[in-house]
Structures are given as structure tokens and as C-alpha cells.
Design goal:
Layout (H helix, E strand, L loop, with lengths): L1 H19 L9 E5 L15 E4 L12 E6 L4 H17 L4 E6 L6 H10 L6 E5 L5 E6 L4 H11 L1
Parallel strand pairs: 3-4
Antiparallel strand pairs: 1-2, 3-5, 5-6
Helix pairs in contact: 2-4
Length: 156
């Protein structure tokens, strides 16, 4: 009987680990902030557009919507979309996974996979994935927070 209970505990622990992930592993960026040095009138390289924790994360999980932005640092359209992204993060943090793909850096393997799957070589590019893993928005160019808010509200 003790072996059976120990076996069930081990199976339960493994199930929780697989669903929740190992301690300390995140799936999306957090604490997103806009780079205060951005020049919105120029294609100057002002450094990373968005800062935060977990910026190299990029796993898309079923059950949680994901907002993915692909950008280059030397693009005023990307700078404006980055500002909208941080506004959306403030509104949806904890409900939506935010994945930030800075195309001017060496990408981790998981983000490289996202780049190959969604990025169409035009910036900025935004992809939204719903809780079932379906792509519900996937376009290049600037998009307003009002438009994305409607999409994210449906995706939650």
C-alpha cells in the first residue's frame, strides 16, 4: 500500500510539473517598460524598445492567450507599436502572455521558431493567439490598442 501511494504521489507531482512547468520557468515577459529614450520621429537606434524580465521567453501555452510583437530597433513604426504593447501589457498582465521578439538580437531557439512561423519580414508585426492555440490576429504594420483590445477580450 505504501508503494502504491508513493507511486501515485510521484505521478501527481509529475503531472503538476508538466502542466505548470518547473519552478522559476516563465512563458512570457513580465514587468514590461518602455525605453524612455525612444525618439518617435526618427529611425534612430535608441536601444531596446521594451525592457523587462523574461524577454527571451516565448513559449506559447494552450489555455492562455499570447500577444507577440516582432520589432526592429531602427523603426519609428515599431517604436509606436512598442508603446501600445506596454499599454496593453498594463491592461492585460496576468491574463495574456506577452512575448517580445527584438529582431536586432540573437534570438533564443523558442523565439526563432516564432519568427519562422509568424514573421513576414515587415515590421512591426503583431500576432495574437487565443486560449485554444488558434491564431486570431497576424499582421504587419501598426495596430491600435482599441483593435487589439477587442481581439484580446475575445481571446481570453
Amino acid at each position: 500500500m505504501i508503494r502504491k501511494k508513493a507511486g501515485l504521489c510521484l505521478i501527481s507531482a509529475l503531472t503538476i510539473f508538466m502542466l505548470a512547468g518547473p519552478a522559476g520557468v516563465s512563458f512570457a515577459a513580465t514587468n514590461l517598460k518602455l525605453n524612455p529614450s525612444l525618439d518617435y520621429t526618427s529611425d534612430s537606434n535608441d536601444g531596446p524598445l521594451i525592457t523587462g524580465k523574461g524577454l527571451s521567453d516565448g513559449s506559447v501555452r494552450k489555455g492562455t492567450p499570447a500577444y507577440i510583437i516582432f520589432y526592429h530597433r531602427e523603426c519609428y513604426n515599431s517604436k509606436r507599436q512598442a508603446r501600445r504593447t506596454v499599454e496593453l501589457y498594463e491592461k492585460y498582465k496576468g491574463k495574456v502572455d506577452f512575448i517580445i521578439v527584438d529582431l536586432d538580437t540573437e534570438l533564443p531557439k523558442v523565439q526563432e521558431g516564432l519568427r519562422h512561423r509568424f514573421y513576414k519580414n515587415y515590421i512591426p508585426h503583431v500576432t495574437v493567439i487565443d486560449t485554444g492555440g488558434e491564431v486570431v490576429y497576424d499582421r504587419s504594420g501598426e495596430v491600435g490598442t482599441d483593435v487589439i483590445s477587442v481581439i484580446l477580450d475575445r481571446a481570453i
